[in-house]
């Protein structure tokens, strides 16, 4: 969308993709992820402060409800600040400063065009997309100006401080070829990581809030689990205690199953040798893909596929045996699978575990009354596929667009 050099999302050549991925993966190893934890926790604290604010911008008293909060937007700001800090070592502070809050909005608007082109690339012939998606084009142009400024400031900051994934990648080399990434490649990959990491993790976080608050028993159990494992907020870090939050992890995965951040088919062109798919020969040059949403709702893998059932991920729960859970896991692919899968999967899980644990430990969550409580839901009289009230409604533009949910938060400390 904005890059002068092919990146891991757009490069076609497998060898070039392999080189890029081997280099970039060095910024997302287990040891490197641990170094990002303090960055994430700082942004978690800013989010908790925002959830605690009253109409006068002062914290509401303990035991009192906050005004209603839009978790769709707050999730965007949180994940954007995390990703900008992780990549360049400095946040753009959208959680506290409204100047850059336009960025998630223009990403979403620009993605309308990108999503259409991913499904119908022929729209680019004679630049039809320019006439069909004028608002998306304007949003893209605004975003490009921001990205140029972000890269200028970010590269300067990362070079000076030595912090962030960019600093790591600028020193990294491909272990097979011994070659680093060029500066244009580094810039393109950094912008891609921020955009992809903001959009997808924000959707997953908003979905978790939606499904937990629409299923009070699950919310009660996840809350009790977190508060039983951790005695104080400063204990809530990744490690052995977090691994004890089995039900919370199940809620995260069930939310991503029901409402995956990238739900549509991720098309791949069959190479010269052709391909065998389930006994059917697919000739070279044909695009193939399977919709992640459809896989995640296949009853062969997920009985009652449209129901929120976190226990389906936990052996010995609801009469499940290990093979049932393994079958469900075999089809679970919210981050895609294979060599083109999301390289930031580990980071996304760390973000989701840390922010949800802190929020559930600190606050009691409540849905508002009236129409605000219905935002994000399907409607019984809605169009085909939109009638399920308890399904978080997403709109596919390559990654997902969302609205809400809206919630109240009652601090208990």
List keywords for this structure.
mainly alpha; 413 residues; globular
Short description:
The protein is mainly α and 413 residues long.
Polypeptide structure, described:
- Keywords: Heme, Iron, Metal-binding, Monooxygenase, Oxidoreductase.
- Heme binds at residue 342.
- InterPro entries: Cyt_P450, Cyt_P450_CS, Cyt_P450_E_grp-I, Cyt_P450_sf, Cytochrome_P450_monoxygenase.
- Its cofactor is heme.
- GO terms for molecular function: heme binding; iron ion binding; monooxygenase activity; oxidoreductase activity, acting on paired donors, with incorporation or reduction of molecular oxygen.
- By secondary structure, this protein is mainly alpha-helical.
- It has 15 helices and nine strands.
- The protein has helices at residues 14-24, 30-35, 37-52, 71-88, 102-119, 128-132, 134-161, 164-171, 183-214, 216-229, 240-243, 246-258, 292-296, 322-331, 345-362; strands at 69-70, 268-269, 275-277, 280-282, 287-288, 363-366, 395-397, 399-401, 406-411.
- It has a three-stranded antiparallel β-sheet. The protein has a two-stranded antiparallel sheet with strand order 2-5.
- β7 (395-397) and β8 form a beta hairpin.
- α7 packs across α8 (164-171) and α9 packs across α12 (246-258).
- The relative contact order is 0.15.
- The mean pLDDT is 91.
Task: Annotate the secondary structure layout.
Elements: H1 14-24, H2 30-35, H3 37-52, E1 69-70, H4 71-88, H5 102-119, H6 128-132, H7 134-161, H8 164-171, H9 183-214, H10 216-229, H11 240-243, H12 246-258, E2 268-269, E3 275-277, E4 280-282, E5 287-288, H13 292-296, H14 322-331, H15 345-362, E6 363-366, E7 395-397, E8 399-401, E9 406-411
Helix pairs in contact: 3-4, 3-15, 4-8, 4-9, 5-7, 7-8, 8-9, 9-12, 9-15, 10-12, 10-15
